[in-house]
């Protein structure tokens, strides 16, 4: 029996161990190769098809996730739209409050100051746009002057001027005074006279303003017959003067139609249309968007003025310019009713001088004389370019009045 030596046994064991290691390494290499081939197949599928091969459960889960993501995106868009809508509503409310003057702060008036309560009340109503209209404001201004002079213990107009100026400053802080108010003030204090004579002059001016409106109504209805039977008249916003014109002209034998265009931020057109309808006049109320539809049937455009300057330019409610441009394109005559106390021969350079701006919002448009056919005053009809001559003749001119002591 042969015996193996220890060295031979060790060498055989080493060989067997090496072969086992090689076998295990070979198995691992094959597994790694198989794993690589599977990954390469998956990458090839992703590159070729663009969509990985998923099971039914994975596909359902993926679809649910996609639906959830879409719903979340829609909710986000809706929330954003709601936020933008709320901000727009807030901006509109702020704009309306700004136009109506509710956010404007009045200065603090001391009880023992020289401010008369009538001026303080008038200034507050002007700042809140409760007192609107050039004629109404002018008459109210004269009334405040009379009450202030009666309450004072002064005797001469030269002594009253500082007192009135102090009250006018408060009024200008609330809202810039109109050309008519400025002319009235200068005419009342044109001469140095006693308090009794100043009050009498102020009362005369007030009655003359009312009388001038009556003369214009008579000219429009009787003399020139601009409001005749069967005519279709286009007007804008509210006017006390035009309300009296239409009310006087409307009879059983003289029936006409009035179209009111709303352009004012205060919805004055709706108030005017309602007042005309209550009289019995055939009235149509439209917005500027419907202007082109009705222009074909319009015979003439009749407006009232807030003021007119030396170039013959008309200053009236905002939105009037677009209406007159459309009327001129259709060759429709434009008739402006304006009392002479609202006129000046100066050329307005500063918009604030004619009360065109109210709390940052444009309240008045400037209309060149080219768009005006004729101006009807209490003294008759004149072209718009003749206003400086009329003003100088009637001494409403601020330059002529400035030569006096006031």
UniProtKB/TrEMBL annotation:
Broad class of the protein's primary localization: cytoplasm
KW Protein biosynthesis (keyword) present: yes
Compositional bias of kind Low complexity: 16-25
Cellular localization per UniProt: Cytoplasm, Cytosol
Compositional bias segments (type: Polar residues): 1-15
Protein's UniProt keywords contain Protein biosynthesis: yes
Composition-biased stretches (Basic and acidic residues): 26-46
Molecular function terms, GO-annotated: translation initiation factor activity
GO cellular component: cytosol
InterPro entries reported in the protein's UniProt record: IF-2B-related, IF_2B-like_C, NagB/RpiA_transferase-like
Pfam families registered for this protein in UniProt: IF-2B
Lineage: superkingdom: Eukaryota
Region (Disordered): 1-55
Keywords: Cytoplasm, Initiation factor, Protein biosynthesis
Family stated for the protein in its record: Belongs to the eIF-2B alpha/beta/delta subunits family.
Subunit structure: Component of the translation initiation factor 2B (eIF2B) complex which is a heterodecamer of two sets of five different subunits: alpha, beta, gamma, delta and epsilon. Subunits alpha, beta and delta comprise a regulatory subcomplex and subunits epsilon and gamma comprise a catalytic subcomplex. Within the complex, the hexameric regulatory complex resides at the center, with the two heterodimeric catalytic subcomplexes bound on opposite sides.
Record protein name field: Translation initiation factor eIF2B subunit delta
UniProt source species: Entamoeba histolytica
